[in-house]
């Protein structure tokens, strides 16, 4: 391709990029309709402006390797910015989003399309160069003048919008900006959204600390008002071969089996006296659906259980003496024969979306799985989520009403008819929740230490005292 044709193509491409996505966003959506960019929108628009500027350099000085490299790097950054922006909204319900939609698609999704086209265009241009780059600049033309003047005009509009609506450094705008205005009383300049790394997580402000079930904090302010006390009637030491901190316990009266999960991703099936391990496997957490830091387990059949990680990824496994661990290489890291995996997946919630959970229970009458959130400072929620056992989708979520200064850390859940029992780790209490999702009763649990799991065994409650190498189960009369 000769330098004149190359110059024309690059000039038209630069003109289209600056006039359409950048020009429409600034002049029509901004000055015309009052749309103000958020922080992420400004990143995307800046990347488009830089790509346009690099195209002007190619147009003026020829197709040099340094310009190609700069264009690709900038376009990749813009593509990342588009994915980063879209990822927070693209899975919302149909039609939902931020800002105006163009042809049914919101602007931050169009960003991905724009930068994908830029990269495809750059690749096609390089292919058409053959074996050598045409670095010779073409004579300056009217088209070049139109392109660069259009660029300068649109940049001027962007400068006005940026400095009036966002402000000079160190102001960086808002994550959810107000309508564009030149009334000084309505303009908001903000420094509240500077990015930060929190606990070595690139999620920044979205970081929610994972629960450490081996070292949870006691907090008397999380105690609900109580007028009763449950006394231990028996304590059983779990087998020493159990690795890690026990975080889940469930019992099935038909098969007379106990199921236990630990923080080290082990699943154990035990006999009714809790002293003998009948079978065990270690869940492979690194591949397929990531399931690490197991938080709870519940029988949903005579021999089958569902186990959940703290982040609501789950697996269903079954005690089957005929199962061979060699057949489940992709599922289990280690263990014995006698366990097979049935399914893996992820529970999706709404109110509980940004909270971890501490246990899971099964309501056989309603065919639902139950989980309760672990409150944290950023997401101070105590939510009871019910998932359908039929399609594993969300049936309902409800905020649990409780009379306490601080919301408790619930690490055990069990169902008894219309009532739900919750084990408060932070308050060492048994909480009773009625059908209206209100805590109607609380009882003190004596002699427990780091209570991590709860299950019903006939007319008794079994509570795990979790400690690595010394996990025990205490039994209480209801």
Question: Which helices and strands, and how do they pair?
Answer:
Blueprint: H1 3-32, H2 39-61, H3 65-87, E1 101-102, E2 105-106, H4 107-128, H5 142-166, E3 228-230, E4 232-237, E5 246-252, E6 257-262, E7 266-270, E8 277-283, E9 294-299, E10 304-309, E11 313-319, E12 332-335, E13 339-346, E14 356-357, E15 361-363, E16 368-374, E17 383-388, E18 394-399, E19 410-416, E20 419-424, E21 429-433, E22 439-445, E23 451-457, E24 460-465, E25 472-477
Parallel strand pairs: 3-22
Antiparallel strand pairs: 1-2, 4-25, 5-6, 6-7, 7-8, 8-12, 9-10, 10-11, 11-13, 14-16, 15-16, 16-17, 17-18, 19-20, 20-21, 21-22, 23-24, 24-25
Helix pairs in contact: 1-2, 1-5, 2-3, 2-5, 3-4
Q: Describe the biggest sheet?
A: 5 strands, mixed
**Spans with pLDDT under 50 lasting ≥5 residues?**
none
What's the SSE pattern? HHHEEHHEEEEEEEEEEEEEEEEEEEEEEE
The Cα radius of gyration reads 30 Å
- Basic shape: elongated
Query: How does the helix and strand content classify structurally?
Result: alpha+beta
What amount of the residues lies in strands?
A: 25-35%
Q: What is the topology, as strand order, of the major beta sheet?
A: 3-22-21-20-19
The tally of helices reads 5
Fraction of residues in helix: 25-40%
Instruction: Give the total of beta strands.
Output: 25
Distance between the termini: 85 Å
Entry summary:
The chain has 5 helices and 25 strands. It is of the alpha+beta class and 478 residues long.
